Amino acid sequence: MAEPLVATYSIAACDLEARQWGVAVQSKFLAVGSVVPWAEPEVGAIATQAYANPSYGPNGLALLRDGLSASEVVERVTAGDPGRDERQLGVVDAEGRSESWTGVGCNDWAGHRTGAGYAAQGNILVGGETVAALATTFEANVQLPLASRLIECLAAAQAVGGDRRGQQSTSLLVVQRDGGYAGLSDNLVDLRVDDHEHPIEELRRIYTLHRRLFEVSPREDWLPVEGDLRAELDERLGRLGYDSLDAWAGVENLEERVEGEDAIDPVVLDALREAGA
User: Fold this and answer.
1) What is the separation of C-alpha 268 from the centre of its chain, rounded to a whole number of angstroms?
2) Are 52 and 32 within 8 A, CB to CB?
3) Is 151 within 8 Å of 20 (Cβ atoms)?
4) Taking the CA atoms of the chain, what radius of gyration do you get in angstroms?
5) pLDDT, tens digit, for every residue of 212-235?
6) What is the Cα–Cα distance from 194 to 185, expressed in whole angstroms?
């Protein structure tokens, strides 16, 4: 059986200061996030595409886990693959070293660019400017959280042409040790848009929702719950049929932003006010 043709552009990257690794990808391909992105905290990130060999993901991570560098992983997995000339691969390791592979049989335009902390690659593109946009946008946005930075990379790449066949799906995967839901998962962000006319715009929209629900405002920004604010919370919760902020937040999927009753995250307060308006 032939491998899926995942003609696309992607970027595998890391933020060593935040200890995060991730992959962002867009393609004219249904549910591209089911094939291309692979990442493990403190190990690395991998994007496998073109006539994709999905085994590059888990096999590559296993080699990274064993201490091989990004370039050694690319050499090892492609050397043992008779279909390597039609593959594309990007790897970033635990130290931020990067390496890409573009087989000579990949459909034009195909190519890659690597730098400190990132590997950008694409095939069946309008031109090399798509991969260049991935790279330059990543380099220019060091101030952003890795997930936001990767979305900006996708948007910039699409703005200069992207996949020459158009758009269909996109995916964003960012991992951090114990950085996911309730501190019990390593998937800090794991979002997919499987079939959409404007998948990057939709990814940006659901990432905004993700941040609202699962991030937490700095503790110094929380408001003390006392006096008039205490009375307002009690009145609003009572009107909605809840006897505690915890109970309401759990139903609204805001429980990650609630800790005790003495102070309230301003995002939670805004949501409660909207709910009871």
Assistant:
1) 24
2) no
3) no
4) 21
5) 999 999 999 999 999 999 999 999
6) 23
